[in-house]
Amino acid sequence: MRDALVAAAFRLFVERGYEQTTVDDIVALAGVGRRSFFRYFPSKEDVVFPDHEGCLADMTAFLAASGAGHEPVRRVCDAARLVLRMYAENPAFSVQRYRLTRQVPGLRAYELSVVWRYERALAEYLRGRFAGRPDGNLHADVIAAAVVAAHNNALRSWLRSDGEGDAGTAVDHALGYVQTTYARSADAPAAPAASGPAGTGAGHPDDVVVVVTRRDAPLWRVVRELETALGRD
Amino acid sequence: MRDALVAAAFRLFVERGYEQTTVDDIVALAGVGRRSFFRYFPSKEDVVFPDHEGCLADMTAFLAASGAGHEPVRRVCDAARLVLRMYAENPAFSVQRYRLTRQVPGLRAYELSVVWRYERALAEYLRGRFAGRPDGNLHADVIAAAVVAAHNNALRSWLRSDGEGDAGTAVDHALGYVQTTYARSADAPAAPAASGPAGTGAGHPDDVVVVVTRRDAPLWRVVRELETALGRD
Asked: Tell me, what's the ipTM?
Protein backbone atom coordinates (compact mmCIF):
# COMPACT_ATOMS: atom_id res chain seq x y z
CA MET A 1 0.00 0.00 0.00
CA ARG A 2 2.79 2.38 1.01
CA ASP A 3 4.83 1.49 -2.09
CA ALA A 4 1.74 1.82 -4.29
CA LEU A 5 1.16 5.34 -2.96
CA VAL A 6 4.77 6.33 -3.63
CA ALA A 7 4.63 4.89 -7.15
CA ALA A 8 1.35 6.66 -7.93
CA ALA A 9 2.66 9.95 -6.52
CA PHE A 10 5.85 9.88 -8.58
CA ARG A 11 4.02 8.94 -11.75
CA LEU A 12 1.82 12.03 -11.31
CA PHE A 13 4.68 14.30 -10.23
CA VAL A 14 6.56 13.44 -13.42
CA GLU A 15 3.50 13.69 -15.67
CA ARG A 16 1.86 16.84 -14.25
CA GLY A 17 4.43 18.41 -11.99
CA TYR A 18 4.63 18.34 -8.21
CA GLU A 19 2.60 21.48 -7.49
CA GLN A 20 -0.19 20.45 -9.86
CA THR A 21 -0.65 17.08 -8.17
CA THR A 22 -2.97 16.86 -5.16
CA VAL A 23 -3.22 14.15 -2.53
CA ASP A 24 -6.66 13.40 -4.01
CA ASP A 25 -5.06 12.72 -7.40
CA ILE A 26 -2.56 10.36 -5.77
CA VAL A 27 -5.11 8.34 -3.80
CA ALA A 28 -7.38 8.14 -6.85
CA LEU A 29 -4.60 6.66 -8.98
CA ALA A 30 -3.52 4.30 -6.18
CA GLY A 31 -7.14 3.28 -5.62
CA VAL A 32 -7.20 4.00 -1.88
CA GLY A 33 -8.79 6.57 0.42
CA ARG A 34 -7.30 9.82 1.70
CA ARG A 35 -7.07 8.41 5.19
CA SER A 36 -4.75 5.64 4.01
CA PHE A 37 -2.45 8.24 2.52
CA PHE A 38 -2.22 10.21 5.75
CA ARG A 39 -1.69 7.05 7.75
CA TYR A 40 1.66 6.67 5.97
CA PHE A 41 2.59 10.25 5.15
CA PRO A 42 1.90 13.38 7.22
CA SER A 43 1.96 15.52 4.05
CA LYS A 44 2.50 15.49 0.30
CA GLU A 45 6.15 16.42 0.84
CA ASP A 46 6.74 13.28 2.90
CA VAL A 47 5.79 10.96 0.06
CA VAL A 48 8.79 12.34 -1.86
CA PHE A 49 11.15 11.08 0.88
CA PRO A 50 9.49 7.85 1.97
CA ASP A 51 12.71 6.16 3.10
CA HIS A 52 14.55 8.82 5.13
CA GLU A 53 12.81 8.17 8.44
CA GLY A 54 13.75 4.50 8.23
CA CYS A 55 17.31 5.37 7.24
CA LEU A 56 17.64 7.84 10.13
CA ALA A 57 16.43 5.13 12.50
CA ASP A 58 18.96 2.68 11.02
CA MET A 59 21.74 5.22 11.40
CA THR A 60 20.84 5.97 15.01
CA ALA A 61 20.73 2.26 15.83
CA PHE A 62 24.05 1.69 14.05
CA LEU A 63 25.74 4.46 16.05
CA ALA A 64 24.14 3.33 19.30
CA ALA A 65 25.59 -0.15 18.71
CA SER A 66 29.14 1.25 18.53
CA GLY A 67 31.78 0.13 21.00
CA ALA A 68 34.80 1.87 22.47
CA GLY A 69 36.98 0.00 19.97
CA HIS A 70 35.41 1.73 16.96
CA GLU A 71 37.57 4.58 15.68
CA PRO A 72 34.99 7.40 15.86
CA VAL A 73 35.68 9.14 12.52
CA ARG A 74 35.62 5.85 10.67
CA ARG A 75 32.39 4.96 12.44
CA VAL A 76 30.55 8.11 11.30
CA CYS A 77 31.83 7.54 7.77
CA ASP A 78 30.37 4.03 7.90
CA ALA A 79 27.12 5.47 9.22
CA ALA A 80 27.00 7.90 6.28
CA ARG A 81 27.38 4.94 3.91
CA LEU A 82 23.95 3.73 5.10
CA VAL A 83 22.42 6.77 3.40
CA LEU A 84 24.31 6.06 0.21
CA ARG A 85 23.11 2.47 0.25
CA MET A 86 19.51 3.65 0.46
CA TYR A 87 19.99 5.87 -2.62
CA ALA A 88 21.92 3.21 -4.54
CA GLU A 89 19.31 0.53 -3.92
CA ASN A 90 16.96 2.19 -6.37
CA PRO A 91 18.94 4.42 -8.76
CA ALA A 92 16.01 5.26 -11.07
CA PHE A 93 13.84 6.45 -8.18
CA SER A 94 16.73 8.39 -6.61
CA VAL A 95 17.56 10.21 -9.85
CA GLN A 96 13.88 11.06 -10.41
CA ARG A 97 13.59 12.45 -6.91
CA TYR A 98 16.81 14.43 -7.28
CA ARG A 99 15.41 16.15 -10.38
CA LEU A 100 12.17 16.89 -8.56
CA THR A 101 13.90 18.45 -5.54
CA ARG A 102 15.92 20.71 -7.87
CA GLN A 103 12.68 22.08 -9.28
CA VAL A 104 10.50 22.54 -6.20
CA PRO A 105 11.81 24.96 -3.53
CA GLY A 106 9.60 23.44 -0.84
CA LEU A 107 11.16 20.02 -1.41
CA ARG A 108 14.64 21.53 -1.36
CA ALA A 109 13.86 22.96 2.10
CA TYR A 110 12.52 19.58 3.23
CA GLU A 111 15.68 17.89 2.01
CA LEU A 112 17.87 20.38 3.91
CA SER A 113 16.03 19.56 7.12
CA VAL A 114 16.57 15.83 6.52
CA VAL A 115 20.28 16.39 5.86
CA TRP A 116 20.44 18.44 9.06
CA ARG A 117 18.98 15.55 11.05
CA TYR A 118 21.57 13.11 9.65
CA GLU A 119 24.32 15.58 10.50
CA ARG A 120 23.03 16.01 14.05
CA ALA A 121 22.90 12.22 14.54
CA LEU A 122 26.57 11.95 13.52
CA ALA A 123 27.55 14.98 15.62
CA GLU A 124 25.76 13.68 18.72
CA TYR A 125 27.61 10.37 18.46
CA LEU A 126 30.97 12.16 18.07
CA ARG A 127 30.17 14.53 20.96
CA GLY A 128 29.70 11.47 23.14
CA ARG A 129 32.98 9.93 21.98
CA PHE A 130 34.88 13.21 22.40
CA ALA A 131 33.30 14.03 25.78
CA GLY A 132 35.79 15.51 28.24
CA ARG A 133 38.25 16.36 25.49
CA PRO A 134 39.09 20.05 24.98
CA ASP A 135 36.87 21.42 22.21
CA GLY A 136 35.17 18.02 21.94
CA ASN A 137 31.83 19.49 20.82
CA LEU A 138 33.49 21.77 18.30
CA HIS A 139 35.48 18.92 16.77
CA ALA A 140 32.37 16.72 16.72
CA ASP A 141 30.28 19.31 14.89
CA VAL A 142 32.99 20.11 12.34
CA ILE A 143 33.79 16.48 11.56
CA ALA A 144 30.09 15.59 11.22
CA ALA A 145 29.64 18.48 8.78
CA ALA A 146 32.72 17.40 6.81
CA VAL A 147 31.41 13.82 6.55
CA VAL A 148 28.00 14.96 5.33
CA ALA A 149 29.53 17.39 2.81
CA ALA A 150 31.88 14.74 1.41
CA HIS A 151 29.10 12.16 1.20
CA ASN A 152 26.76 14.61 -0.53
CA ASN A 153 29.41 15.81 -2.94
CA ALA A 154 29.85 12.26 -4.22
CA LEU A 155 26.16 11.38 -4.03
CA ARG A 156 25.09 14.45 -6.01
CA SER A 157 27.72 13.88 -8.70
CA TRP A 158 26.33 10.40 -9.09
CA LEU A 159 22.71 11.65 -9.19
CA ARG A 160 23.61 14.36 -11.74
CA SER A 161 25.17 11.67 -13.94
CA ASP A 162 21.77 9.92 -13.86
CA GLY A 163 23.03 7.18 -11.59
CA GLU A 164 25.80 6.07 -13.97
CA GLY A 165 28.91 4.48 -12.52
CA ASP A 166 29.52 3.12 -9.06
CA ALA A 167 28.23 5.45 -6.36
CA GLY A 168 29.92 3.38 -3.65
CA THR A 169 33.42 3.94 -5.04
CA ALA A 170 32.85 7.69 -5.37
CA VAL A 171 31.52 7.97 -1.81
CA ASP A 172 34.39 5.85 -0.45
CA HIS A 173 36.87 8.16 -2.12
CA ALA A 174 35.15 11.29 -0.74
CA LEU A 175 34.89 9.87 2.78
CA GLY A 176 38.53 8.79 2.55
CA TYR A 177 39.47 12.45 2.29
CA VAL A 178 37.67 13.21 5.56
CA GLN A 179 39.11 10.15 7.31
CA THR A 180 42.65 11.07 6.27
CA THR A 181 42.14 14.62 7.47
CA TYR A 182 40.64 13.84 10.85
CA ALA A 183 41.50 10.31 11.84
CA ARG A 184 44.77 11.25 13.55
CA SER A 185 43.47 14.34 15.35
CA ALA A 186 40.43 12.41 16.53
CA ASP A 187 42.64 9.60 17.77
CA ALA A 188 45.17 11.70 19.69
CA PRO A 189 43.37 13.92 22.16
CA ALA A 190 46.31 15.31 24.15
CA ALA A 191 49.20 16.62 22.09
CA PRO A 192 50.71 16.66 18.62
CA ALA A 193 52.18 13.26 17.87
CA ALA A 194 55.88 13.27 18.54
CA SER A 195 58.02 11.25 16.15
CA GLY A 196 61.50 11.40 14.73
CA PRO A 197 64.82 11.70 16.53
CA ALA A 198 63.77 12.23 20.10
CA GLY A 199 60.07 11.55 19.86
CA THR A 200 59.66 10.27 23.36
CA GLY A 201 56.27 11.86 23.86
CA ALA A 202 55.62 15.56 24.33
CA GLY A 203 54.14 17.27 27.37
CA HIS A 204 53.34 20.72 26.10
CA PRO A 205 53.25 21.68 22.40
CA ASP A 206 55.81 24.42 23.10
CA ASP A 207 58.30 21.75 24.11
CA VAL A 208 58.36 20.37 20.57
CA VAL A 209 60.41 21.70 17.66
CA VAL A 210 59.43 20.78 14.13
CA VAL A 211 62.12 20.97 11.48
CA VAL A 212 61.25 20.56 7.81
CA THR A 213 64.17 20.18 5.45
CA ARG A 214 64.93 19.11 1.90
CA ARG A 215 66.49 15.71 1.77
CA ASP A 216 69.39 17.04 -0.31
CA ALA A 217 70.22 20.02 1.98
CA PRO A 218 73.84 20.16 3.28
CA LEU A 219 73.95 18.62 6.75
CA TRP A 220 75.98 21.49 8.29
CA ARG A 221 73.27 23.93 7.25
CA VAL A 222 70.51 21.79 8.74
CA VAL A 223 72.42 21.47 12.02
CA ARG A 224 73.04 25.21 12.20
CA GLU A 225 69.35 25.95 11.67
CA LEU A 226 68.48 23.26 14.16
CA GLU A 227 70.70 24.90 16.81
CA THR A 228 68.92 28.18 16.21
CA ALA A 229 65.52 26.54 16.45
CA LEU A 230 66.50 24.77 19.68
CA GLY A 231 67.88 28.01 21.11
CA ARG A 232 71.40 26.56 21.50
CA ASP A 233 73.35 29.04 19.39
CA MET B 1 10.15 52.13 8.27
CA ARG B 2 11.89 48.78 7.79
CA ASP B 3 13.36 48.90 11.32
CA ALA B 4 9.99 49.93 12.75
CA LEU B 5 8.35 46.89 11.15
CA VAL B 6 11.00 44.55 12.55
CA ALA B 7 10.66 46.11 16.02
CA ALA B 8 6.86 45.84 15.96
CA ALA B 9 7.02 42.25 14.70
CA PHE B 10 9.40 41.10 17.44
CA ARG B 11 7.45 42.85 20.15
CA LEU B 12 4.36 40.90 19.07
CA PHE B 13 6.22 37.61 18.55
CA VAL B 14 7.50 37.80 22.12
CA GLU B 15 4.17 38.91 23.60
CA ARG B 16 1.76 36.63 21.69
CA GLY B 17 3.94 34.06 20.00
CA TYR B 18 4.98 33.85 16.38
CA GLU B 19 2.09 31.77 15.05
CA GLN B 20 -0.50 33.95 16.80
CA THR B 21 0.82 37.14 15.22
CA THR B 22 -0.46 38.15 11.77
CA VAL B 23 1.00 40.61 9.28
CA ASP B 24 -2.08 42.76 9.98
CA ASP B 25 -1.14 42.90 13.67
CA ILE B 26 2.40 43.96 12.78
CA VAL B 27 1.40 46.75 10.41
CA ALA B 28 -1.23 48.01 12.86
CA LEU B 29 1.37 48.32 15.62
CA ALA B 30 3.93 49.90 13.28
CA GLY B 31 1.24 52.28 11.96
CA VAL B 32 1.77 51.48 8.27
CA GLY B 33 -0.18 49.68 5.56
CA ARG B 34 0.10 46.03 4.46
CA ARG B 35 1.67 47.09 1.18
CA SER B 36 4.58 48.71 3.03
CA PHE B 37 5.22 45.45 4.84
CA PHE B 38 5.35 43.42 1.66
CA ARG B 39 7.57 46.00 -0.01
CA TYR B 40 10.28 45.06 2.50
CA PHE B 41 9.46 41.45 3.32
CA PRO B 42 8.05 38.78 1.01
CA SER B 43 6.52 36.94 3.97
CA LYS B 44 6.16 36.93 7.75
CA GLU B 45 9.14 34.57 7.99
CA ASP B 46 11.40 37.10 6.28
CA VAL B 47 10.84 39.74 8.95
CA VAL B 48 12.52 37.37 11.42
CA PHE B 49 15.73 37.44 9.35
CA PRO B 50 15.81 41.03 8.09
CA ASP B 51 19.61 41.22 7.77
CA HIS B 52 20.62 37.95 6.10
CA GLU B 53 20.07 39.08 2.51
CA GLY B 54 22.34 42.06 3.09
CA CYS B 55 24.92 39.89 4.81
CA LEU B 56 24.86 37.36 1.97
CA ALA B 57 25.40 40.21 -0.50
CA ASP B 58 28.31 41.52 1.63
CA MET B 59 29.84 38.06 1.77
CA THR B 60 29.53 37.55 -1.98
CA ALA B 61 31.12 40.96 -2.63
CA PHE B 62 33.91 40.24 -0.13
CA LEU B 63 34.73 36.93 -1.82
CA ALA B 64 34.50 38.44 -5.30
CA ALA B 65 37.04 41.08 -4.24
CA SER B 66 39.59 38.38 -3.34
CA GLY B 67 42.95 38.26 -5.07
CA ALA B 68 45.28 35.38 -5.91
CA GLY B 69 47.39 36.38 -2.90
CA HIS B 70 44.63 35.54 -0.41
CA GLU B 71 45.11 32.16 1.21
CA PRO B 72 41.74 30.58 0.32
CA VAL B 73 40.90 28.86 3.64
CA ARG B 74 41.76 31.99 5.57
CA ARG B 75 39.65 34.00 3.16
CA VAL B 76 36.49 31.90 3.71
CA CYS B 77 37.06 32.09 7.46
CA ASP B 78 37.19 35.87 7.18
CA ALA B 79 34.02 35.79 5.07
CA ALA B 80 32.29 33.76 7.82
CA ARG B 81 33.28 36.42 10.34
CA LEU B 82 30.98 38.84 8.47
CA VAL B 83 28.02 36.74 9.64
CA LEU B 84 29.28 36.78 13.22
CA ARG B 85 29.67 40.56 13.08
CA MET B 86 26.03 40.92 12.01
CA TYR B 87 24.88 38.84 15.01
CA ALA B 88 27.23 40.58 17.45
CA GLU B 89 26.12 44.06 16.38
CA ASN B 90 22.83 43.58 18.16
CA PRO B 91 23.15 40.86 20.83
CA ALA B 92 19.70 41.38 22.38
CA PHE B 93 17.95 41.01 19.02
CA SER B 94 20.10 38.02 18.04
CA VAL B 95 19.36 36.18 21.29
CA GLN B 96 15.63 36.90 20.97
CA ARG B 97 15.60 35.57 17.42
CA TYR B 98 17.59 32.50 18.42
CA ARG B 99 14.95 31.62 21.03
CA LEU B 100 12.19 32.17 18.49
CA THR B 101 13.77 29.90 15.87
CA ARG B 102 14.15 27.13 18.49
CA GLN B 103 10.38 27.25 19.06
CA VAL B 104 8.97 27.56 15.55
CA PRO B 105 9.76 24.69 13.14
CA GLY B 106 9.01 26.85 10.09
CA LEU B 107 11.64 29.37 11.17
CA ARG B 108 14.13 26.59 11.81
CA ALA B 109 13.64 25.43 8.20
CA TYR B 110 14.06 29.00 6.98
CA GLU B 111 17.28 29.33 8.94
CA LEU B 112 18.63 26.08 7.48
CA SER B 113 18.05 27.43 3.97
CA VAL B 114 19.90 30.65 4.86
CA VAL B 115 22.83 28.68 6.31
CA TRP B 116 22.86 26.59 3.14
CA ARG B 117 23.18 29.73 1.01
CA TYR B 118 26.15 30.98 3.06
CA GLU B 119 27.78 27.58 2.74
CA ARG B 120 27.27 27.55 -1.02
CA ALA B 121 28.78 31.04 -1.37
CA LEU B 122 31.91 29.86 0.47
CA ALA B 123 32.04 26.60 -1.49
CA GLU B 124 31.68 28.35 -4.86
CA TYR B 125 34.58 30.66 -4.03
CA LEU B 126 36.76 27.70 -2.98
CA ARG B 127 35.75 25.72 -6.07
CA GLY B 128 37.06 28.60 -8.16
CA ARG B 129 40.32 28.76 -6.22
CA PHE B 130 40.80 24.98 -6.35
CA ALA B 131 39.83 24.69 -10.03
CA GLY B 132 42.02 22.26 -11.92
CA ARG B 133 43.22 20.61 -8.73
CA PRO B 134 42.39 16.92 -8.23
CA ASP B 135 39.24 16.68 -6.11
CA GLY B 136 39.02 20.48 -6.07
CA ASN B 137 35.23 20.51 -5.82
CA LEU B 138 35.21 17.88 -3.09
CA HIS B 139 37.76 19.77 -1.01
CA ALA B 140 35.90 23.04 -1.56
CA ASP B 141 32.58 21.57 -0.37
CA VAL B 142 34.08 19.88 2.67
CA ILE B 143 36.08 22.92 3.79
CA ALA B 144 33.07 25.24 3.33
CA ALA B 145 30.97 22.89 5.47
CA ALA B 146 33.69 22.74 8.14
CA VAL B 147 33.91 26.55 8.26
CA VAL B 148 30.15 26.92 8.62
CA ALA B 149 29.95 24.21 11.30
CA ALA B 150 32.80 25.76 13.32
CA HIS B 151 31.31 29.24 13.03
CA ASN B 152 27.87 28.02 14.05
CA ASN B 153 29.19 25.97 16.96
CA ALA B 154 30.73 29.11 18.48
CA LEU B 155 27.85 31.39 17.50
CA ARG B 156 25.22 29.08 19.05
CA SER B 157 27.18 28.68 22.29
CA TRP B 158 27.24 32.45 22.52
CA LEU B 159 23.51 32.74 21.74
CA ARG B 160 22.66 30.03 24.29
CA SER B 161 24.62 31.98 26.92
CA ASP B 162 22.31 34.94 26.16
CA GLY B 163 25.05 36.84 24.35
CA GLU B 164 27.41 36.86 27.35
CA GLY B 165 31.14 37.00 26.70
CA ASP B 166 33.00 37.83 23.54
CA ALA B 167 31.53 36.10 20.51
CA GLY B 168 34.46 37.19 18.34
CA THR B 169 37.04 35.34 20.44
CA ALA B 170 34.97 32.16 20.47
CA VAL B 171 34.47 32.25 16.69
CA ASP B 172 38.17 32.99 16.11
CA HIS B 173 39.06 29.96 18.19
CA ALA B 174 36.61 27.73 16.32
CA LEU B 175 37.72 28.96 12.89
CA GLY B 176 41.34 28.51 13.99
CA TYR B 177 40.66 24.79 14.28
CA VAL B 178 39.48 24.67 10.66
CA GLN B 179 42.37 26.82 9.43
CA THR B 180 44.94 24.63 11.19
CA THR B 181 43.33 21.53 9.74
CA TYR B 182 43.08 22.69 6.16
CA ALA B 183 45.41 25.63 5.57
CA ARG B 184 48.41 23.54 4.61
CA SER B 185 46.59 21.17 2.30
CA ALA B 186 44.74 24.04 0.67
CA ASP B 187 47.87 26.12 0.22
CA ALA B 188 50.13 23.58 -1.30
CA PRO B 189 48.46 21.53 -4.00
CA ALA B 190 51.66 19.64 -4.82
CA ALA B 191 53.70 19.09 -1.67
CA PRO B 192 53.84 19.81 2.06
CA ALA B 193 55.03 23.36 2.76
CA ALA B 194 58.77 23.44 3.28
CA SER B 195 60.07 25.70 6.01
CA GLY B 196 62.87 25.71 8.54
CA PRO B 197 66.56 25.16 7.90
CA ALA B 198 66.68 24.52 4.21
CA GLY B 199 63.13 25.26 3.24
CA THR B 200 63.84 26.44 -0.25
CA GLY B 201 60.72 24.97 -1.75
CA ALA B 202 60.06 21.31 -2.39
CA GLY B 203 59.49 19.57 -5.69
CA HIS B 204 58.14 16.23 -4.61
CA PRO B 205 56.86 15.29 -1.15
CA ASP B 206 59.49 12.57 -0.95
CA ASP B 207 62.21 15.25 -1.16
CA VAL B 208 61.18 16.69 2.20
CA VAL B 209 62.15 15.36 5.61
CA VAL B 210 60.18 16.38 8.66
CA VAL B 211 61.93 16.13 12.02
CA VAL B 212 59.98 16.56 15.24
CA THR B 213 62.06 16.80 18.39
CA ARG B 214 61.72 17.83 22.02
CA ARG B 215 63.29 21.19 22.68
CA ASP B 216 65.35 19.72 25.54
CA ALA B 217 66.72 16.74 23.58
CA PRO B 218 70.55 16.46 23.47
CA LEU B 219 71.78 17.94 20.19
CA TRP B 220 74.07 14.99 19.37
CA ARG B 221 71.09 12.71 19.51
CA VAL B 222 69.03 14.92 17.22
CA VAL B 223 71.87 15.13 14.70
CA ARG B 224 72.36 11.38 14.71
CA GLU B 225 68.66 10.82 14.07
CA LEU B 226 68.72 13.53 11.43
CA GLU B 227 71.56 11.74 9.62
CA THR B 228 69.54 8.57 9.67
CA ALA B 229 66.45 10.35 8.38
CA LEU B 230 68.46 12.01 5.59
CA GLY B 231 70.05 8.73 4.67
CA ARG B 232 73.59 10.00 5.39
CA ASP B 233 74.64 7.49 8.02
From this structure: 0.78
